Amino acid sequence: MFYKELDNGKYRYYEKFYDEREQKWKQVTVTLKSKSRVSQAEAKRRLARKIDKVLTAPTKEELKRQKIEEMSFGQLLTEWETIRGGEIKPSSFKSEMKCLRFFMEVVGDLRLSDYTTQLIQAYLMSLDIQNSTRKNRKIYLNGIFGYAEKVGYISESPVKSVVIPKQKADYEKLKKAKEHFISKEELSSVLSYCETHNKDRRYALAMEFIFLTGLRFAEFIGVRYQDVDFENHLLKIDHTIDYVAHKYDDRVLQTTKTVGSVRTIVLSERCLEIIDYFQQNCLDKDFIFVTGQGNIMRQPLLYKFIKDICDTVLGEGRAYNIHMLRHSHISLLAELGVPIKAIMERVGHRDESITLRIYSHVTENVQDELKEKLNQIRL
């Protein structure tokens, strides 16, 4: 111990010591009024207490480690929201965060170290959802726990070893998959019914347009007159209306689902006739497909229109919906012999496997054509 006299007449006592945990020298001080032996003894006692306090207090690393060990999923989610909010579209962000919050509600807001592979596996398998949806939920969890691993909150993500079992196709599933399409003959019957029974013409034409173009619903409602090249029969698709994070009539535009979804497609004469009808009966100067009240078409209302009409004309029990029209368009192109790459470009698919799953649906017309060709084979 040593001391120095200060300008104010007091004395500052110093003691150096070595901190083994941090492997460096440190120093503590105490100021007293005197340098007497009594004061020096008191200084030694105070300095000793200070040294003991420093040596027993958690280090910065220990405090950081303690904070990490006590970190909950809710705290991680708050951090992850800030990161993901700048990475993905608002609609995708809203869906992902909703799923992650649901996970926290079901499993609990536990410490990160308490989440195990078995716990997450059990959670995912307990959900009464399609296997494809289950895989998406796993992707969300893999993202947030993968981030926690990268920044050092956990040593290894518990999602890495989670296995989503493959579902073997059974007869009912195959039957249901085949019912997720509508042929051009069936659609023709539906449209004829709409005309003879005075059904909403705008919704009927919307059905037909999606069937003829294969647009996603968000792409369809986002089509504007300025996106159409009437002279060359082309439609530019580079945006959608975000109706998930915003209201339909806020008309908030966002980028398409993927980079591969940005495309320009050829429009048939019939597509141009449909657009011409909306233009001749224009209720919005920008967006084409609006209702009789001039509002952007709502997904639930168009879905109900399609389901009710198809149930009446084609019979109940099939999965009639908006996306069915998109799948049917792909199936129709396959029936016409359009190469898969050309189909992918037209409908905005980047992943070939997605198109192939729909492409593999062979219509009765193709089967008949195949039968004729097989009958021509003679050995």
**What portion of residues belong to β-strands?**
5-15%
Structural class assignment: mainly alpha
Kindly report the average pLDDT value. Answer: 88
User: For the terminal residues, how far apart are their CA atoms?
Assistant: 109 Å
* Low-confidence runs: none
Text of the CATH class of the largest domain = Mainly Alpha
CATH fold-level label of the largest domain: hpI Integrase, Chain A
Can you tell me the overall shape? elongated
The major pleated sheet works out as: 3 strands, antiparallel
* Strands in their spatial order, largest beta sheet: 1-2-3
Radius of gyration: 34 Å
CATH H-tier superfamily of the largest domain = Intergrase catalytic core
How much helix, percentage-wise, in residues? Answer: 40-55%
Number of strands: 8
Q: What's the SSE pattern? A: EEEHHHHHHHHHHEEEEEHHHHHH
The CATH architecture category of the largest domain equals Orthogonal Bundle
Q: Work out the helix count.
A: 16
Number of domains: 3
GO biological process, one term: DNA recombination
Family: Belongs to the 'phage' integrase family.
GO molecular function, one term: DNA binding
Protein name: Integrase
Description:
This protein folds into 3 domains: 56 residues, no CATH class; 83 residues, DNA polymerase, domain 1 (Orthogonal Bundle), CATH 1.10.150; 193 residues, hpI Integrase, Chain A, CATH 1.10.443.10. Helices cover 53% and strands 9% of the residues. A 3-stranded antiparallel beta sheet has the order 1-2-3, covered by helices on one side. Strands 4-5-8 form a 3-stranded antiparallel beta sheet. It has a two-stranded antiparallel sheet with strand order 6-7. The longest helix has 20 residues. It starts with a strand and ends with a helix.
